[in-house]
């Protein structure tokens, strides 16, 4: 899939050059091209879209249609096909028109005209002018990477040289047919000594901000893609006395993949991938800005933007909203002011705000050698210091003045410490203490009066009213939930009073409805059924658990509703419903080709890695299955249904339960038999899911004409016979599949469904296995393996026979 505005019309090439170089006095005319050594890039003349103007450019050769990566004469197009490219003996590359007028020049100059000079199109897409030796990849007289357009390529540096003053940044096209410089730029805060962060600007106005840099990644920078048979990418930041630059590099070989970052004419920063031999570009979740809170300074100074609340903007604790009389047209964004003025008393202290995108560092000072304690002391001792933060393991940022462009970042946010008055902090603590004292006094008084009555009514209250008691909090909010509560009337209106026409499906929790809020946002509403086995405990568990989890491979919980007997969960709407609605449907499964299935496998693995390792909590899902993988509008997978999930304490590797829950066909043997669950339980379920995605068949109920094996046993049989490719969903995957990816997926799937917990890979290893190239350990016979003539000792049947009374199993319809 290509961006809609990148469509080009190329004249038929009348001649082609096999070389990837231009020598001195060698000309390239319109209709001729030079090709990089790996044939991935091509240099020549083109006309964009419906334009008749001609441009000298570099494009990705192996895409359909070709995609432009660089344009030389952006501001001076040729009006006909008379252009000629020349390299003179001074190392200067020029483009001249039919009358001999110079339209564009590299303005480079060699120090010695006697050296052998040539222009070389490198395999990275970089056009360079060299002297002497073609293997010299460091000392260039000139390179196109120093003059990028709207496209960033792997290895290109964006930044500034403080010695020469040379700044390198992206500039959008003017439009689909016009590569001249547009209004949007992606560039750094280019001030020596200031802390590095990126801005997207519309002319001089800041549209959005990426940063600041944590030492590992940019706060607010979307996660770079990790796709199988494609390298993982990482952004690097380099700061020295002489220069500052950021670059994106590939961890592995990029011979079979292309990647590009583009700044669109509308100001969007996007990352696209292309995997050979496919000719189309694949979009990635890397898309910035992501939401309204990425708009620069949207909540004003001392405001915090949070997409999980309505409205999104609020003031920091200790600040209050100005009245309408105080927010005129000249300062309409400065909506928060100090509740109590700071006067630099020794009693002043700092209030911590967690999971924050740190404020704009334009008015901040950075010290790379300060610990967090030193940072706090430095801010405390300077009355002008308003806040401080730790950038990474060592490094201190001190802010002086307003705190602008702050938002909540649950995934990669950082702690921000804001100076507050002693009285405000005292009020916060005393308010908490006063509430506790009042509760104690009231509780004691009531208990004396009502003790006898409580004893008489205890059983009645327990049995009849327990399920209708509202959750704690005067506003009805549930404990420490971090998502908003919706009113029943609002949800009823959004779903057309829970119309049957809005019903998406039904699961173990209850029916699911599509809704549209008044502001236009589409939602999915899970309504707890009165007959559901999943009651208050599962409901509360899901709200409190998933509210603390934010990842692009997890479904997003927008809020909940509790009113009377009604209990509902409100999620982001997933237009393509669940994976099983495609995978096991004969009429729809053909829509899932192999690249899409492999993308889904990797997305689920990344979601598990977040749950098991990278989130604030270590979470075991306990019900991972095709029906609990939802698909967004781009078919990206998102893990859902956290009603059965459990958090494992720090330092623990497993936990035990007397009540086994889950879905037959996905439950691990140690969990089914002994009630032991850990991240390896989810790994087992993931292995089953991988084999189902490859084969298009359900593990439970699988039947084969030649034997009685279940799906795991069938996959094991084929693996032992060296016929793992026979497992693929033959009707749908030919000819789209990659044999290497399929074989690796089956192999990894079998490793995940091993009988012994210790034989299954951990989640980080699992992700590395799927995306890697190296050898894999040999799997053993899978758990629950049933041969046609026997039921093995590790069959699920004897495990469940002794514990059936404490097992909760689910079989739900696709949503």
Please give the structural blueprint.
Layout: E1 8-9, E2 21-23, E3 28-29, E4 34-35, E5 41-48, E6 55-60, E7 67-71, E8 84-87, E9 93-96, E10 102-105, E11 117-121, E12 127-131, E13 142-143, E14 151-153, E15 157-161, E16 167-168, E17 170-175, E18 178-188, E19 198-202, E20 205-210, E21 233-239, E22 243-250, E23 257-263, E24 269-275, E25 282-288, E26 303-305, E27 313-315, E28 319-321, E29 336-338, E30 349-357, E31 364-367, H1 372-380, E32 385-390, E33 396-400, E34 406-408, E35 414-420, H2 422-465, H3 488-494, E36 503-506, E37 511-516, E38 522-527, H4 536-546, E39 557-563, E40 566-572, H5 580-583, H6 594-614, E41 618-620, E42 629-631, E43 637-639, E44 646-648, E45 654-656, E46 660-662, H7 669-674, E47 676-678, H8 679-695, H9 711-720, H10 730-733, H11 739-752, H12 763-771, E48 786-787, E49 790-791, H13 796-801, E50 807-809
Parallel strand pairs: 26-34, 46-50
Antiparallel strand pairs: 1-5, 2-11, 3-8, 4-5, 5-6, 6-7, 8-9, 9-10, 11-12, 12-13, 14-23, 15-16, 15-22, 17-18, 18-19, 19-20, 21-22, 23-24, 24-25, 26-27, 28-29, 30-34, 30-35, 31-33, 32-33, 32-35, 36-37, 37-38, 38-40, 39-40, 41-44, 42-43, 45-47, 48-49
Helix pairs in contact: 6-8, 6-12, 8-11
């Amino acid at each position: 899939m290509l961006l809609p505005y990148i469509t080009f019309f190329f004249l038929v090439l009348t001649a082609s050059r096999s070389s990837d170089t231009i020598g001195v006095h060698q000309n390239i005319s319109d209709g001729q091209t030079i090709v990089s050594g790996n044939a991935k890039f091509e240099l020549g003349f083109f006309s964009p879209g419906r334009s008749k103007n001609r441009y000298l450019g570099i494009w990705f050769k192996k895409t359909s249609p070709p995609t432009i990566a660089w344009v030389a004469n952006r501001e001076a197009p040729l009006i006909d096909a008379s252009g000629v490219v020349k390299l003179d003996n001074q190392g200067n590359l020029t483009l001249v028109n039919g009358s001999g007028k110079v339209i564009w020049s590299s303005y480079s100059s060699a120090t010695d005209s006697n050296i052998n000079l040539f222009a070389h199109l490198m395999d990275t897409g970089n056009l360079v002018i060299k002297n002497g030796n073609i293997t010299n990849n460091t000392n260039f007289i000139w390179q196109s990477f120093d003059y990028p357009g709207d496209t960033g390529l792997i290895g290109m540096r964006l930044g500034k040289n403080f010695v020469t003053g040379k700044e390198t940044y992206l500039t959008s096209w003017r439009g689909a047919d016009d590569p001249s410089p547009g209004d949007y730029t992606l560039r750094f805060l280019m001030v020596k000594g200031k802390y590095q962060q990126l801005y997207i600007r519309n002319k001089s106005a800041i549209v959005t901000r990426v940063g600041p840099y944590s030492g590992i990644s940019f706060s607010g920078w979307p996660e770079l893609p990790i796709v199988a048979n494609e390298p993982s990418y990482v952004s690097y930041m380099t700061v020295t006395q002489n220069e500052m630059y950021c670059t994106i590099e590939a961890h592995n070989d990029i011979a079979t993949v292309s990647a590009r970052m583009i700044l669109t004419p509308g100001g969007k920063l996007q990352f696209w991938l292309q995997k050979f031999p496919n000719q189309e570009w694949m979009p990635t979740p890397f898309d910035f800005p992501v939401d309204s809170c990425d708009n620069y300074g949207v909540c004003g100074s001392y405001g915090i933007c949070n997409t999980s609340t309505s409205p999104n903007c609020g003031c920091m604790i200790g600040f209050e909203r100005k009245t309408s009389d105080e927010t005129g047209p000249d300062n309409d964004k400065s909506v928060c002011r100090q509740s109590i003025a700071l006067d630099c008393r020794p009693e002043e202290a700092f209030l911590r705000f967690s999971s924050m995108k740190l404020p704009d560092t334009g008015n901040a000072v950075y010290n790379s050698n300060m610990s967090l304690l030193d940072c706090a002391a430095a801010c405390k001792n300077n009355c002008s210091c308003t806040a401080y933060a730790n950038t990474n393991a060592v490094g201190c940022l001190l802010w002086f003045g307003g705190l602008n462009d702050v938002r909540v970042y649950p995934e990669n946010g950082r702690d921000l410490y804001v100076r507050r008055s002693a009285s405000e902090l005292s009020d916060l603590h005393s308010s908490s203490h006063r509430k506790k004292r009042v509760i104690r006094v009231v509780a004691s008084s009531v208990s004396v009066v009502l003790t006898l009555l409580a004893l008489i009514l205890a059983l009645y209250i327990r049995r009849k009213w327990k399920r209708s008691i509202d959750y704690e909090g005067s506003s009805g909010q549930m404990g420490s939930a971090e998502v908003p509560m919706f009113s029943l009337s609002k949800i009823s209106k959004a779903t057309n009073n829970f119309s049957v026409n809005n019903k998406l499906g039904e699961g173990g929790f209850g029916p699911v409805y599509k809704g549209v809020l008044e502001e236009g946002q589409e939602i999915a509403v899970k309504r707890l059924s009165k007959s559901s086995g999943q009651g208050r405990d599962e409901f509360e568990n899901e709200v409190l658990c998933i509210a603390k989890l934010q990842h692009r491979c997890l479904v997003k919980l927008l809020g909940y509703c509790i009113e009377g007997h009604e209990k509902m969960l409100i999620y982001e709407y997933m237009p393509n419903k669940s994976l099983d609605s495609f995978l096991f449907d004969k009429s729809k499964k053909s829509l899932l080709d192999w690249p899409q299935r492999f993308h889904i496998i990797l997305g689920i693995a990344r979601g598990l890695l977040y749950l098991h390792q990278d989130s604030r909590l270590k979470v075991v899902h306990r019900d991972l299955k095709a029906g609990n993988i939802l698909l967004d509008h781009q078919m990206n997978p998102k893990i859902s249904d956290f009603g059965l999930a459990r958090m494992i304490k720090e330092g623990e590797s497993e936990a035990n339960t007397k009540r086994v829950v889950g879905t037959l066909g996905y439950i691990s043997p140690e969990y089914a038999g002994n009630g032991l669950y850990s991240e390896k339980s989810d790994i087992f379920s993931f292995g089953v899911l991988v084999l189902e995605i490859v084969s298009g068949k359900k593990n439970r109920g699988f039947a084969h004409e030649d034997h009685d094996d279940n799906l795991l046993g069938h996959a094991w049989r084929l693996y032992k016979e060296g016929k793992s490719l026979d497992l693929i969903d033959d009707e749908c995957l030919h000819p789209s599949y990659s044999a290497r990816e399929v074989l690796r997926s089956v192999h990894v799937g079998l490793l995940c469904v091993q009988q012994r917990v210790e034989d299954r890979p951990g989640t980080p290893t699992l992700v590395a296995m799927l995306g890697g190239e190296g050898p894999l350990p040999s799997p053993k016979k899978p758990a629950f393996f049933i041969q046609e003539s026997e039921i093995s000792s590790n069959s699920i049947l004897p495990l469940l026979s002794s514990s059936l009374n404490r097992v909760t199993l689910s079989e739900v319809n696709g949503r």
